[in-house]
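Assess this one:

_____
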Amino acid sequence: MKTTIKRLSVLLLAICMICALAAPLNVQAAVSKSTKKKLNNLVDCMYGFEFDLLVFMDIELDEVREVTINKSLMAQAAALNCESTFVSEIGEWGMESIYSVTPKQIKKMAKKMFGKTVTYKSLPKGSADDAIGFNAAYLNADGNPELWYWEGETETDYVIVKTTYKKTDKGYDVIRDVFCGYWGINTYYNGKKANYRVTYNTAKKKGSTYGYVITGMTVEYIADLVIPDDEGEG
C-alpha cells in the first residue's frame, strides 16, 4: 500500500512539474517595448479609416464583424495616411476641404501598411458630393486621387482605452478597446470605458518599415454605453 501511495505521489509530482513547464507555452509572452512601438505605429496608420468606419458602422451588441482587406480598402486606408496638399475649401460653411495626394505616395504607404503592391487605381470613383462621414479617399472626375475631409466641429470622441497584444503563428494580434461616440458619454465614464474592440492581425515581414504588416481586421461592439436617465436626479 505504501509503495502504491509513493508511486502515486511521484506520478502526481511529475505531472505537476510537466504542467508547470508547459504553462508558459499557453501564456502570452511579454511583448518588448520596441515591438509594441512598431505594432502601434503600424496600426496607427489605420486611424482615419478606422475612425470613420466605427462612426458609421451598423453593428449589433456582441457582434463580431470581419472587415475585408481588399485592394480598395488598402488604397483608401493608405491614401488617408499620406501627407496631403490642400486644394480648396468647399461647402456652405467652409468646413469641408479637398486635398490631393500623389499616386507614388499611395503605393508606398500601402506597401508599408499591408506589404502589398496597391496602386491609386484601386480607389473607388467618387467626388466630395458623394462623401459620407469625416473623411474619404477616391478617384475624382479626372481620374486623380483626391481626399475629402470634414474639418468642422463634431460631438464625437474617439479614444483608445486599452491595447493588448496576442502572439500568433505569423506575428501578433493587436487588440484595441476604444470608445467611439458622443463625447458626453465618454466624459461620464471618465474615458475609461470602451464600446468597440478593434483587432488587427499582423504578420512578421522581413524588410518592412515596421517589421510587421496588417493582414486582417475585425470589429466587435462590446458595450452599449449610455448616460442613465436618472443621473443627477434627487
